[in-house]
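Before the break, one more example. Copy the sequence into your notebook; we will annotate it together after we see the structure.
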Amino acid sequence: MSESKNKLINHAQINWSDQSEPISTLFDDVYFNTEQGLNESVYVFIQGNNLEQRWLNCETEYFSIAETGFGTGLNFLITCLQFHHFTEQHPSALLARLHFTSFEKYPLTKVDLETALQRWPQLSDFIAPLLAQYPMAITGCHRITLDKFNITLDLWFGDVLETLPSLYLYDSGLFDCWYLDGFAPSKNPEMWSEQLFKQIAESCKKGASIATFTAAGFVRRGLVDAGFTMQKRKGYGKKREMLIGQMRTDICKKQLYAEHFRQTAQTNSKDVAIVGGGIASACLSLALVKRGYKVTLYCKDANLADGASGNRQGALYPLLNAEHDSLGQFFANSFLYARNYVALLNQFTPFDFDFSGLLQLYYDQTAGTKLDKILQAQLPKELVKKLSNKQTDQIAQLNIDQQSLFYELGGWLNPKQMVQAIFKKAQNEGKLSIKLNKQLDSFSEDYNGWKLQFSDQSVTHPLLVLTTAMNSLEFKQCKAIPLSAARGQVTYIPTNETIKKLKVTLCHEGYLTPVNKHMHCMGATFKRHELDTGFSVQEQIDNKQKLAKCITNKEWVEQIECSHQDANVGIRCTTRDHFPYVGALANYEETKIHYRNAQKRENTNNAPFYNNLFILTGLGSRGLRTAPLLAEMLASQVNSEPLPFPNDILNALQTNRQWINYLKKGKKLKFE
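Here is what the structure looks like once it is written out:
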């Protein structure tokens, strides 16, 4: 585990001047000039990078900007306004979407950010969604979407010298343009280092530009040495000079060895087939149609969300650990994104959910030890905090009499309704065709892409994505993926005068939800390697016994009625290390050859993957919290956009991760 993963994110400490200007106490510098902030940002960064003309001449449908130092977000917000004006004035332009990436080591608190931005009412259309989705201080990438304006913000919390190198770089580069901002070089020299300039240059696309308010000689020389052609330009207002530049075309890009993760989208086609019908395929369909793809969804069932996504209520909270390592960071960031995703989706199509909080109970010594370890990560208390027995009961409004961890932002939602709402939104926003009762028998590669063979027909699509859970193992290309099945039955229980008082979701060995439409969800069983989806009387009893075991000697538990057949059964698709499998599908047979001597020496050629074939599976019982951001990641990968995860998490998501680890240790693979 890298040292950086243990570093906590500290908020900026702000003093306010007599003119209500925010001043950093750490760097003793102002964030913006009260009177000229907007105009200066336009002059230095928008005009300095010649963005309006470049947008007009852009030959791609999206443009990618990166920035050092998010601060109050003023540069981002004024860029949003300028881009919105551009799209209104040039409706026929090829450029349709903007991707903005910003790096911030000391983010403002939400309260300070809101205070700082109050003086810019002309930016209110963009400030509102930014504040609504603004994240707590957790390391990693926080993806914020302004769907109304086709703008995406990736806000990376952490030291840019550590976070920028962790981004996956395509051969063509990542960014069209850089805003080199931050506090003055004399105040914050680390932000203006030769090391950072080289990292910036490596991230650039051909012809990328850069602009900065400073004209310091060492900055100009450092950028020239990194690969930019630099020149001085008149500074804004009283500032005499500033710097602008462009990436030199004769600079050779650093080629990065990709052992696990690779892009492998080798077509310009916007025609993609998705096979599935649950939360993963729904989120991916929406993410792709937003990017202009024509999506055809093939579902083997007569209805969408008939499988594990078919429950009436599912719990939403992050899977955390003591270290906040790659796994903890993945689940924390995914949870925060999923919560915003649900709120935004609900504005389009209302569905049942309640984010009133979630309690994870200290029901025995083992559970208590595990939960106490989570607190060692020193995560923000608005994400997770410990409650006493009395506090637990006060929040739950039930007699539980246990300590607990309280996830204030957690809660429950209706998975089936959510899936249906996502598909409805996707059909409203783009080209989505849904084909039900289409069981995929096999697929094979041909010169037009991937040929899909159904019982009644065969069709070909240039791009293919499998969101087929355990059914993925039925295809020869996926046979070696180490997936495991786990049957789960959720019991629907009628409410009564006591348990209808429950205000938050309870998690123990299972879970119990608050009332919704006179019913609660209680569950769920976990039967490994079982694929039977038939109703089980015993598992109804098991769900109640599990609750009674964890919350003992409570009359309200005994009053729960489960002697009926009202339940839902689903097959969870799980992985050994809790990371899903997402990305290009690795070629198993070629992987064995590629790494046959891996125990003795490293093969620095890129690992073998199928072209234009992708997978999103292995979400287990956590699909509600991970599918939205994973779908964004995969759609970004297919479309060669910046990705919302660092390389260590990207590598942990790949289908070849366990194969390679086994081969490096000299272990025999299961499928030979």
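The first strand starts at residue 14 and ends at 16. The two ends are 32 Å apart (CA to CA). Try to locate both features in your own notes.
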